[in-house]
Amino acid sequence: MKVVSTQRSQVLAGRLATAMNIPLIDVRWQKFPDGEIYLRAEESSEQIIIMGSVLTSDDLVELLLLKDAFLSSEITLIIPYMGYARQDKQFNPGEPLSARAVAGILGMNAKRVVTINIHEKTVLDHFGTTTTDLSLSSLMGGRIAELSLDNPLILSPDEGALYLARDIAGSGGWESDYLQKTRLSGELVRIEPKEVSVRSRDVVIIDDIISTGGTQSTAAKMLMEQGAKAVHTICVHGVLATGAYARLLSSGISSVSCSDSIERACSTYSAAPVLSEYLRTIPL
Ligand code: R5P
């Protein structure tokens, strides 16, 4: 059993290989003059863990090429961040079901697919093979504990991610709630917790993904107006598109944390322990 990864996931793949005490295969990457990707894996293995987060189209192509290079192996495919999982519905005629299209090609020829806090669990059905979605909630709880906050309130930005807020809160014995949006007028919206007051409290807004940071920064500003002592934020997947990190900090958020499912400067905790613990339980 060996591990190999796309360029996007080399740090997490290295950590996983170390945690499992198995070799990490070196890969040579190049681009042809026309922009096409070339790769060559330096070793083979009968059983292979292939890892690659899909944030961009090049990430997807790298992962498909890497899978093809190991076609004669038994493949366990780990997709820490599964892009396109938010495009899981057709709203208008003529639109693709993008999550299905991407999962369908990724799942082909893989013995199993492992994801981490995938945005929408129904997407797992499109891989066409055995799937497992792992949660980093206990690691997120551990990271929050490191911040030494005073009885923090764990808030989900909507009802959809309340399951994650509850799991995280449960790991530290904290309170949880979710944010509710009330439209006050055509332009004015009030965001506040459904039940719990934030006055004089340390608040942690959690989410599976921070993309533009719009949700978190708008909520943080409102929570501070409502008297929160400090607002921190933690997510699983730090997509951090279009200046999101600066947007978060300039809104007054005290700290930003994400996992290494996408390697970022604010990746303060690693998914490797959860992945290695899971991989040890399956017959490889
Ligand atoms: C959406 O349902 C996700 O769970 C996140 O809440 C969303 O992706 C955050 O987006 P943004 O950072 O752009 O507000």
What does this structure look like?
The chain has 284 residues and is α/β, with parallel strands linked by helices. It folds into two domains: 144 residues, Rossmann fold; 124 residues, Rossmann fold, CATH 3.40.50.2020. Helices cover 30% and strands 28% of the residues. It contains eight helices and 14 strands. The strands form three sheets. Strands 10-9-8-11-12-13-14 form a seven-stranded mixed β-sheet. Strands 1-4-5-6-7 form a five-stranded parallel β-sheet, with helices on both faces. A two-stranded antiparallel ribbon has the order 2-3. Helix 1 packs across helix 8. It is globular, with a radius of gyration of 20 Å. It starts with a strand and ends with a helix. The model has no long low-confidence stretch (mean pLDDT 96). Bound molecules: ribose-5-phosphate. Ribose-5-phosphate binds next to strand 11 and helix 6. The site of ribose-5-phosphate has 11 residues, from strand 11 and helix 6.
Key structural traits:
alpha/beta, Rossmann fold, seven-stranded mixed beta sheet, five-stranded parallel beta sheet, globular
Q: Kindly state the number of beta strands.
A: 14
How does the overall form come out from the CA principal axes? globular
Largest sheet: 7 strands, mixed
Give the oligomeric state of the chains in this entry, treating copies of one chain as homo and distinct chains as hetero: single chain
Present as ligands are: ribose-5-phosphate
From N to C, what is the helix and strand string? EHEEEHEHEEHEHEEEHEHEEH
- State the CATH architecture of the largest domain: 3-Layer(aba) Sandwich
Query: How many helix segments?
Result: 8
Instruction: Classify the fold: give the CATH topology of the largest domain.
Output: Rossmann fold
Overall pLDDT metric: 96
How many whole angstroms does the radius of gyration measure?
20 Å
Q: Which class of secondary structure composition applies to the elements?
A: alpha/beta
β-strand amount: 25-35%
**Spatial strand order of the main sheet:** 10-9-8-11-12-13-14
Write down the domain tally. Answer: 2
Low-confidence stretches: none
Helix content: 25-40%
The N- to C-terminal Cα distance equals: 8 Å
What is the CATH C-level name of the largest domain?
Answer: Alpha Beta
